[in-house]
Amino acid sequence: MLVVVRESGGAGVTEVARHLLLPALDDRAALLIRRAEDIEREWAALNGLVESASMAPLPRTDAARHRRRLAELRTVEDPHRRLADLRALLRELRADLERHDRHTGTELPAPRGERGRAEQR
């Protein structure tokens, strides 16, 4: 997503953060947390049925902890602080899920805007 704001301060930047960036990043964080939860459920279901050496490693991401963190971030009033914290949460989730996905050969779900581009290729 590319957002260009002509003014570097004032209410315009805050409104862009509040009404555009925050909902998009919140949705993305929720999607990645669901992905981590799915991996945890799959891993738990296979544990004991499949030899552990043949299983992909369990992501280091604790989905429940991240879900709680996302809920906390939703209560932060300052949009700039919330934006920075959401970006940090997303970096952590992406890094851990990418490590897991490299081992399994899967890919992270594309952001909403990327799906259309991927299908056009």
Characteristics:
4 helices; single chain; 121 residues; mainly alpha
Explained architecture:
It is a single chain. This protein has 121 residues and is mostly helical. The radius of gyration is 17 Å and the shape is elongated. 13% of the residues are buried. The C terminus is likely disordered.
Describe the SSE topology.
Blueprint: H1 11-46, H2 63-73, H3 79-104, H4 112-120
Low-confidence stretches: 114-121
Radius of gyration: 17 Å
Tell me about the largest β-sheet. none
User: Strand percentage, roughly?
Assistant: under 5%
- Taken from the alpha-carbon principal axes, the silhouette is elongated
Helix content: 55-70%
Could you give the count of β-strands?
A: 0
End-to-end CA span: 19 Å
What is the string of helix and strand elements? HHHH
Average the pLDDT over all residues and give the rounded result: 75
DSSP summary: helix tally: 4
Structural class: mainly alpha
